[in-house]
Write a structure and sequence with these properties.
mainly alpha, elongated, single chain, 4 domains, three-stranded antiparallel beta sheet, Rossmann fold, three-stranded parallel beta sheet, 48% helix, Helicase, Ruva Protein, domain 3, 12 strands, binds glutamic acid, Glutamyl-tRNA Synthetase, domain 3
């Protein structure tokens, strides 16, 4: 039997990190077993589903490298299938029409609340006579279709993550609605549990891998599989993603959708890598950096934790840095150019390319996220530079001025500047002025970049020289000191 799994997002919001992580686990499992990964868009909720969310979801999955083998299939185009299944359930006596009004249901729930009972439908219309039905119809009531849930049933399955799970029928809230109201005796819009089961049967899904928040749905769905005489697939309920406080990560935590992470300058590879670690670990637990293909070779549900997975920004940042540092300079340059352009820096992406790559060579190893490059490289693009507080204080020393004027005059005889020239100038000034080399270098760095710390000084100097900025900066600093 070949493995067939699916990701079934509802387009009621942008691609959420929780859904994306579930997609990662499905994808890894499919690839590990040479199976098929299917994309199904669960858009039966007409009010909340939007085409722009569908687009965001498809783009997000594509960006992450989670390519699907079949789909996207849209539930909204498959309504006939759900209606047929509902009719079968009605015909076989597994489902019935319920005419309770919203007001009646509300009254029932408040009575239950007063008795301190959990809210549930009390199955009051399970055995209506044809006369009672006709009377409700005559009143103009529109029925929903409910599926019978036996309170005495114990539903048991062997979960690939959680082991044996058992659920009592009496904890499922009474007979469940599987289709909404519609006129006459037609069948209305199908609800989630029914549509999912009909689709999973039709698409021959062998393993249903989804978030732990669906456990109670799984119990209900197993009853539907049985009633529809279909084989029950395997289930894996993956741990929830938690915030710092240990609560389910939600919109209130700010960034939660994949497009947000993308905009923040995380790379797809790093984010996908990080998501595999949200609940799973490699058999070699020291190994944390891998591509999706590499993870797929080792993936198994035995190594998926059943406790919630805490979202750890530091770890994501670290992983992102690892990816950025490993990128070849030309590729990193390609990725940074749009950020510099958006920042309004002036350069020509073609003729300045060698200089840009030199700049990337310099700042690349310090990047955590792509947009960091804007502030890190600002001084190389702009004419003037503001001294930060530390650099300003440093420049108050008379020795700083001495060092800078000596460097400025040494530079007069250097129409071009090599790395060796730069080193020699620093050495000479240190010796002639009898200053500490550290002070000379800090003064030079402060004048050139406005800061006393930063990446390699000689490289920074050469980059500024190439833009004709080093002498200018020295003069500006001398004026101020
Ligand atoms: N549309 C459901 C969701 O987004 C799918 C759950 C499932 O995988 O069955 O949560």
């Amino acid at each position: 039997m070949s493995v067939r799994v699916r990701i079934a997002p509802s387009p009621t919001g942008n691609l959420h990190i929780g859904t994306a992580r579930t997609a990662v686990f499905n994808w890894l499992f499919a690839r590990r077993h040479g199976g098929q990964f299917i994309l199904r868009v669960e858009d039966t909720d007409k009010e909340r589903s939007r085409p722009e969310y569908t687009q965001n979801i498809l783009e997000g999955l594509t960006w992450l490298g989670l390519n699907w083998d079949e789909g996207p299939l849209f539930q909204s185009k498959r309504l006939d299938l759900y209606r047929k299944a509902t009719q079968t359930l009605l015909d076989k006596g597994f489902a019935y029409r319920c005419y309770s009004t919203e007001a009646e249901l509300e009254e029932m729930r408040s009575a239950q609340k007063a008795r301190r009972e959990a809210p549930r439908y009390d199955n009051r219309h399970r055995n209506l006579t044809p006369e009672q039905q006709a009377a409700f119809e005559a009143e103009g009531r529109r029925p929903v279709i409910r599926f019978k849930i036996d309170d005495n049933r114990e539903i048991v399955w062997n979960d690939m993550v959680r082991g044996k799970v058992s659920w009592r029928g009496s904890d499922l809230g009474g007979d469940m609605v599987i289709a909404r109201a519609s006129g006459e005796d037609a069948i209305g819009q199908p609800l989630y549990n029914l549509a999912v089961v009909v689709d999973d049967i039709d698409m021959q899904i062998t393993h249903v891998i989804r978030g732990e928040d669906h456990i109670a749905n799984t119990a209900k769905q197993i009853l539907l599989y049985e009633a529809l005489s279909a084989a029950v697939p395997e289930f894996a309920h993956t741990p929830l993603i938690l915030n710092k406080e240990g609560k389910k990560l939600s919109k209130r935590d700010g960034v939660t959708s994949i497009s947000d992470f993308q905009q923040m300058g995380y790379t797809a590879e790093a984010l996908a890598n990080y998501m595999t670690l949200l609940g799973w670990s490699s058999p070699d637990s020291t190994k944390e950096i891998f591509t999706l293909d590499e993870a797929a070779q080792e993936f198994s549900f035995e190594r998926v934790n059943n406790a919630g997975a805490k979202f750890d920004w530091d770890k994501l940042n670290w992983i992102n840095g690892q990816y950025l540092h490993a990128l070849p300079v030309p590729e990193l340059t390609d990725r940074l150019i749009p950020y510099w352009q958006a920042a309004g820096f002036e350069f020509d992406p073609v003729s300045d390319r060698p200089w840009l790559e030199q700049l990337v060579n310099l700042i690349g190893p310090s990047l955590t996220r792509l947009p960091d490059a804007v502030e890190m490289s600002r001084v190389f693009f702009t004419q003037t530079v503001e001294l930060n507080e530390e650099a300003g204080a440093h420049m108050q020393q008379a020795a700083a001025g001495d060092a800078l004027s000596a460097i400025a005059s040494a530079l007069e005889s250097h129409e071009s500047l090599t790395s060796d020239d730069a080193q020699t100038i620093i050495k000479q000034v240190t010796k002639e002025k009898n200053l500490k080399k550290g002070l000379v270098m800090r003064s030079l760095r402060a004048a050139l970049t406005g800061e006393v710390h930063g990446p390699d000084l000689i490289e920074s100097w050469l980059l500024l020289r190439a833009r004709g900025l080093d002498r200018l900066r020295l003069q500006q600093a001398l004026k101020k000191s």
